[in-house]
Each structure stands twice: as structure tokens, then as C-alpha cells.
């Protein structure tokens, strides 16, 4: 069954035959044939261009196609429609243009976001891509398909459409647990082997300028593939490889040499190109063998005595009106030479293990052939492995013998010249063995043992296991809390916010009414006159010492107490100002009383105190401000003070 969506967005389930050719990094080709039937009778006469098609593979298939051409044939009193369709993504991009010229240095993310803007499709970059590459120009009347093609070439990418997502890879691949064999599930196998540019040897030259002879190269090396020693193949030399200097060339000869060695290895190892095509047989006994684009799978053609690791790059499928597959033709290319023998063990060992453990069931009639295929694959890799008495199966990296992998009853162990380290056991994967790469949390959810800590997609969620209503969710640019709050610590270790509540109170409060010294008759020794608190020399003469202007309190949340003030004196009088702590909380050392003096006609009548209170304790503290006169002037000579700032500071 196929789903058609009309121009009013109404969906219609129909009975139709389909022929679908799906290719890696290319537009799909879909043909839908609709025969007049009881199911289709109500809609067949209305179907037209720009209708959409979905559910081609099955009901879970979210990929959408758009009808570009409708052919109608009358057979007697019946109607047969043939719809030619292309993917909705390609259709939309081909109808959207950038008219203005865009020049600059655009990253891959920027280009993909601009290509897919307002299309309904979301680009995703899977894995690592080429760095240091920028697109410098696009637009000027280009449609978005043209820009996409340039981006694919510039960054050397492949893509796969998955519903509303378009996934981009440097090398798209999916490890699978089935085997393709002409003794099991393949027929009519053909192989095309292109050896026109097949090499087993290359001389490589680096640190060389464009146009200069090879003899001027600062770095040179030879790379020879093991097949060069094969008497039937021998030494097949590639043209000299030049790594031309540019602005990104390192000044370190070792860096250049490593880059040159990798380039030479890639040139030789990838030089033999193979293409296969075969009919795939869907069988009830093999329900888990469901080929998809970019599957990497072991393939054996016994009629050609040929076995290799391949990647599916095209699938052409015919389905009947019920959606059952009646024909599937696979096209696949092989993996690089250096991967093939090593891949044999992965596929064969898992296949045999799943069969013997009962995870996979196949019919008795196919059992002998299936086991023969797997056995042959295992035999092919014996030269790559050592079967030891105590360590189990040992595999060594031919390019670096210090790198070893052990497989025995304990699990999978790895070594880089040191003591073997357990990487995988029956209990799971050991995280300590992971040294590089990334975990795609769109595909994997990471949970703590109590389920209280989860990373999934672009979100990190922590939940209180005792109270599920209390949780924190972190997404790019956003932190959201429920039932609690954020706690922050200052550099000195003191909290500035607790459970979402700010805990920094920098205010200083004065007592009201003022806490002013009085004489025996209850008369204030200091009074407010205009913008100043004032007193006279005559009152000072009665006291002979400091008397209080007021008392103040504050919560100790800052390191320093700041007091700025302005004084006035007349008729020869002077003034002294003092700050003195009182009622100090237990366990806290009081700050020393601090005083400043000013005389009549002082050139700078401004003063300030900056008192170190020590590490904040969050406790309430109090202090007096006191003043006194001097012995100069007359009894009526005034002295006063005005405060311009009182605050706590860091």
C-alpha cells in the first residue's frame, strides 16, 4: 500500500505497484503504477502532478516524493496510471534560487543552513568532515541543487535522506549482521573490476613548491603494498605523488612526513575499483537481511571464487500492489584493499556466533551453505591473526606492531605496547578504553544507574530520584529548573546564589531614628543642619573624646566595607572621623577601629574608608561612625560630615 497526498493535504491509501531506484548521494527514481480497482476507484481519476507519494517501503517510510509526470492508459473500461516521481527534497531545492552574489568564506554549516532554509528539511553533519575548507562564492542565479552539488564536491561528502533529515557523511556506512552470498540470498552476480589505475607502489614527495623538480623536495618516502610481493601481481608503480606547499603547510618535517605517508597509502590502497550487481532474494528464513543504502557487508560469489567487503550504493526494488518485494537488484562497491581481509573476521565471526547461540534461525536446507560461507570467511583471515595458547586470538597492526587486539574468554582487550586493557566484556563496553571519536546522542541515550542523569539528543536532564518533580534540563543556550534552582559559587568559595535565590545583599542600613550620643540631659551632641551632621567645639570640650553619629548594620556578603564622605569645618575647628565595629558575631574577628582627621581650611575635605572585612561569612555585622573635634577654634566653631556612599565591594 502507498500513501498519496493531494493538493489539499488530504491523504489517500491506494493499491499500487512501484519501481524504486535508490542511490547514495543522488535523486531517487520512483515509478508508481496504479490500476483501477475497488480500493483505487474513488481517487484514480483525480490524481495529478504535484501530488505527493510516501510509504513506498512500508508504513514507517517517511521519505516523500512528488509526482512530476502522469501517464494515463485506457485498457477497455479500466484506467492504468503511471506516475513518475522524484524526491521532494530535490524538487524543492531545484525550485528555489539565490539571485544575489554571496562572497566571503562560508563554512559547511553556513552553506547547508542556507541551502535548506525554509525547505522543511533539516541538514545534519554525521561524523568528522574536512576542516579548513571554505566556500567563497555562491548565488548569482544558482538554484539550491547547484549549490548543494558544489558543496558535496568541495567537502567531498555523501548524503542520505531520512524523512525530514538529510544526513551528510564523509563516508556513509552502516555495519550490519548479515552476509550476501550466491549460495544463500544472491543470484545473477556480475563483477566489474577496474584495474586501469591499480597500483601497489608509489614514491611520494613533500615540502616541494609547485613547478620545482622532485629533487628539491624536503621530505620523500616510499609506500609499498603487501600485494607487491605477490608473484602474480608484483610491483605496479603509481605516478610520483607530490604534496605541494601552500599557506597551511607545516614547518615541522615530521608532520609533513606523516601527512605524505597517509596520502601515499590512500592512493595505493584505494586504487583498485570494483563494482558488483546482483539480484537479492528476500526469504522468510532470513528476515534480518534487509539491505539499505550504505550497508557494509561481506559478499561472496562462489561461482567466481570471489569474497570481499562491499558497500551498497544503489538498490532497485519492484513491489506488487500489496507492497511485497518481487525483485531487488543491488549495486555495491568494495572497500579499500587493506580493509578487506580484516573485515572478514567481523562479519563471519558474528554470523557464526549468532547462529550457534540461537539468535538467528535459518532453515535446515540452507544451513550447510551458510556455515560453509562463514567458515571460508574465517579461513581467509587466518594469515591476519595468531591463535595463541594463553591470550586467545591475537591481532597486530601491520603498520605498528605495538598496537594489539586480544580476544579471549575475558572479552576484547587492547594494547599499545603496554599492559593489555579490557575494552569489552560480557558486562558491556569499558569507557576507559575509549580514546577518540564522539558519541551521537541522537542515536544513543546515556543514563546513570538510577535513571537520574540522562543525555539524549541535545539535552542533558538530571532528575532527583526521590522527587521526580525536581529536575534540571540543559539545552544549547538554555538552562531550565523545576522545584529547585541554580547554585553558584564565587572564586573565594562563597555562594552567590543558592537554589535559584540571589544571596548577595550589598546594602548597608542605618538605624532610624539615628543612634546619636546624648548628654546627661538627653540632648543630642550631634544634629542635622542642612546637608551635614554637625557639632561644635564647645560640645567636644565637654566630652573630650569621640561621640556617635549613628549605628549601621549589613550582611557580610562582600569583602570590603566602603565609606565615602565629605567634611566641613569653620572658625579654626577640625574634625576626626572613626569607624568602629560592635556586637561582632561569635567566631569572627572585628576589624580594627579606623580614624581620619581633617583640620580647618583643609585642601581636600573629602575622605573615604576601605576596610577589609575578610572572607564573606553571610553573618550580620554592625559598626558605629563616630566624630570628634579638636582643640582649635572657639566654642561655637562647627565641624560636620556628610556621607556620599556606603556599600560593600569585592
TrEMBL record:
<dbReference type="InterPro" id="IPR056060">
    <property type="entry name" value="Tal_TT1_dom"/>
</dbReference>
<dbReference type="InterPro" id="IPR010572">
    <property type="entry name" value="Tail_dom"/>
</dbReference>
<protein>
    <submittedName>
        <fullName>Uncharacterized protein</fullName>
    </submittedName>
</protein>
<feature type="domain" description="Tail spike">
    <location>
        <begin position="97"/>
        <end position="318"/>
    </location>
</feature>
<dbReference type="Pfam" id="PF24650">
    <property type="entry name" value="TT1_Tal"/>
</dbReference>
<dbReference type="Pfam" id="PF06605">
    <property type="entry name" value="Prophage_tail"/>
</dbReference>
<feature type="domain" description="Tal N-terminal tail tube TT1">
    <location>
        <begin position="2"/>
        <end position="86"/>
    </location>
</feature>
Amino acid at each position: 500500500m502507498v500513501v498519496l497526498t493531494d493538493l489539499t493535504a488530504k491523504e489517500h491509501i491506494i493499491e499500487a505497484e512501484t519501481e524504486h531506484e535508490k542511490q547514495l548521494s543522488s535523486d531517487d527514481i520512483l515509478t508508481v503504477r496504479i490500476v483501477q480497482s475497488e480500493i483505487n476507484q474513488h481517487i484514480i481519476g483525480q490524481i495529478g502532478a504535484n501530488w505527493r507519494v510516501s510509504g513506498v517501503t512500508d508504513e514507517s517510510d517517511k521519505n516523500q516524493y512528488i509526482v512530476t509526470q502522469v501517464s494515463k492508459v485506457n485498457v477497455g473500461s479500466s484506467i492504468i496510471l503511471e506516475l513518475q516521481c522524484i524526491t521532494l527534497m530535490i524538487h524543492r531545492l531545484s525550485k528555489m534560487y539565490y539571485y544575489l552574489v554571496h562572497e566571503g568564506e562560508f563554512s559547511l554549516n553556513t552553506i547547508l543552513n542556507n541551502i535548506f532554509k525554509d525547505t522543511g528539511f533539516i541538514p545534519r553533519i554525521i561524523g568528522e568532515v574536512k576542516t579548513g575548507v571554505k566556500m567563497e562564492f555562491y548565488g548569482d542565479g544558482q538554484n539550491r541543487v547547484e549549490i548543494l552539488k558544489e558543496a558535496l564536491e568541495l567537502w567531498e561528502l555523501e548524503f542520505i535522506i531520512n524523512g525530514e533529515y538529510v544526513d551528510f557523511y564523509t563516508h556513509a556506512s552502516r555495519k550490519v549482521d548479515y552476509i550476501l552470498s550466491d549460495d544463500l540470498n544472491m543470484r545473477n552476480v556480475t563483477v566489474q573490476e577496474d584495474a586501469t589505475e591499480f597500483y601497489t607502489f608509489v614514491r611520494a614527495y613533500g615540502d616541494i613548491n609547485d613547478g620545482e623538480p622532485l629533487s628539491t623536495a624536503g621530505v620523500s618516502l616510499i609506500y609499498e603494498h603487501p600485494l607487491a610481493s605477490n608473484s602474480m601481481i608484483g610491483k605496479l608503480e603509481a605516478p610520483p605523488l607530490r604534496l605541494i606547499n601552500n599557506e597551511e603547510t607545516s614547518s615541522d618535517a615530521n608532520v609533513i612526513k606523516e601527512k605524505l605517508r597517509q596520502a601515499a597509502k590512500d592512493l595505493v590502497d584505494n586504487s583498485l575499483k570494483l563494482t558488483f550487481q546482483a539480484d537479492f532474494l528476500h526469504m522468510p528464513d532470513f528476515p534480518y537481511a534487509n539491505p539499505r543504502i550504505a550497508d557494509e557487508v561481506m559478499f561472496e560469489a562462489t561461482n567466481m571464487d570471489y569474497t570481499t567487503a562491499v558497500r551498497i550504493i544503489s538498490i532497485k526494488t519492484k513491489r506488487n500492489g500489496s507492497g511485497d518485494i518481487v525483485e531487488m537488484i543491488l549495486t555495491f562497491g568494495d572497500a579499500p584493499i587493506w580493509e578487506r581481509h580484516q573485515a572478514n573476521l567481523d562479519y563471519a565471526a558474528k554470523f557464526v556466533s549468532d547462529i550457534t547461540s540461537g539468535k538467528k534461525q535459518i532453515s535446515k536446507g540452507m544451513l550447510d551453505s551458510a556455515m560453509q560461507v562463514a567458515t571460508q570467511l574465517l579461513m581467509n583471515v587466518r594469515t591476519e591473526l595468531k591463535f595463541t595458547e594463553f591470550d586467545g586470538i591475537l591481532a597486530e597492526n601491520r603498520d605498528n606492531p605495538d598496537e594489539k587486539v586480544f580476544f579471549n574468554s575475558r572479552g576484547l582487550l587492547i594494547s599499545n605496547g603496554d599492559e593489555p586493557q579490557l575494552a569489552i566484556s560480557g558486562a558491556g563496553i569499558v569507557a576507559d578504553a575509549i580514546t577518540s571519536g564522539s558519541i551521537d546522542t541522537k542515536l544513543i541515550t546515556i543514563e546513570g544507574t538510577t535513571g537520574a542523569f540522562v543525555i539524549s539528543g541535545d539535552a542533558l536532564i538530571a532528575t532527583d530520584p526521590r522527587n521526580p518533580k525536581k529536575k534540571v534540563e540543559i539545552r544549547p543556550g538554555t538552562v531550565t529548573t523545576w522545584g529547585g534552582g541554580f547554585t553558584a559559587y564565587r572564586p573565594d568559595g562563597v555562594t552567590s546564589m543558592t537554589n535559584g535565590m540571589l544571596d548577595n545583599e550589598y546594602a548597608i542600613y542605618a538605624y532610624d531614628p539615628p543612634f546619636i550620643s546624648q548628654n546627661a540631659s538627653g540632648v543630642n551632641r550631634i544634629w542635622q543642619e542642612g546637608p551635614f551632621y554637625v557639632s561644635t567645639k564647645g560640645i567636644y570640650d565637654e566630652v573630650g573624646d569621640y561621640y556617635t553619629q549613628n549605628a549601621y548594620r549589613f550582611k557580610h556578603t562582600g569583602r570590603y566595607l566602603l565609606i565615602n564622605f565629605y567634611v566641613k569645618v569653620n572658625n579654626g575647628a577640625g574634625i576626626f572621623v572613626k569607624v568602629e565595629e560592635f556586637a561582632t558575631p561569635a567566631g569572627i574577628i572585628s576589624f580594627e577601629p579606623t580614624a581620619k582627621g581633617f583640620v580647618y581650611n583643609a585642601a581636600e575635605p573629602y575622605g573615604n574608608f576601605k576596610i577589609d572585612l575578610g572572607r564573606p561569612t553571610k553573618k550580620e555585622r554592625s559598626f558605629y561612625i563616630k566624630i570628634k573635634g579638636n582643640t582649635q577654634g572657639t566654642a561655637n566653631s562647627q565641624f560636620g560630615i556628610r556621607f556620599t556612599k556606603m556599600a560593600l565591594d569585592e
